[in-house]
Amino acid sequence: MLKSAPNLRTRRSRIGGFSMVELAVSMCVLLILSAIAIPSLMHSVRTYQLNDAAGRLSDIVKFTRFEAVRRNKMVALQLQQFGRDWVAWADIDNDGNLDTTEKQVRISGFVTLLTAGGGPPAPTAITNALNVGGLTATPANPGPLQFDARGAVRVNNGPTVSVYVFYVGAAGANPGDFGYRAVILLPSGATQIWTAPAGGPWKQAG
Questions:
Q1: Global pTM?
Q2: In whole angstroms, what is the distance from residue 198 CA to residue 121 CA?
Q3: What burial class does residue 190 get, using C-beta atoms within 10 Å of its C-beta: 0-12 exposed, 13-18 middle, 19+ buried?
Q4: Which fold does the domain 13-204 belong to in CATH?
Q5: Which label site among 67, 75, 153, 179 has the fewest CB atoms less than 10 Å from its CB?
Q6: HSE (CB half, 13 Å, CA atoms) of 173?
Q7: Where are the domains of the chain?
Q8: What is the pLDDT of residues 70-82, one digit of tens each?
Q9: Sorting pLDDT into bands at 50, 70 and 90, what band is 3?
């Protein structure tokens, strides 16, 4: 028994841990895998943020339309920029002010609203699908969009035949790196969400 003890301790010492070389190799492999995975992960996160912003914007449009029908009166969809953020809200009392009791969505941080000339590709696929001559970009003027008691879109208390588009993209110097989203508002009050890479074409989101 005394003769076998050193051999047992030797086997245990060999099994007990990693050598410095093994540890260094493992760390190198881990760093390489991280360098490959992180850009893909960040792209997925940014894509999710764009989709989420477009979805929330579409939801506030739908909510405002629903409130107009439910209350049987005109309700305005307000859109205003506060610093670098955009806020869209259902202006239930139609006073043009953002009240704490009015439902709102804030688009901020990585995501922002873009103008038609701010980078999104030409909406040819959208206009062809909708059979319209063009789109009216994010409506800052004239006045807010409104929904009547039937849920149809009106501008300055008058009916409209325009198809409106809210372009959603990345804030910063290269907004096209993660593609674009477009929230389409039809004269009937229905909404659609379209997506496009930097060079297009637009495709309707499923």
A1: 0.79
A2: 7
A3: middle
A4: minor pseudopilin epsh fold (3.55.40)
A5: 67
A6: 0
A7: 13-204
A8: 999 999 999 988 8
A9: low
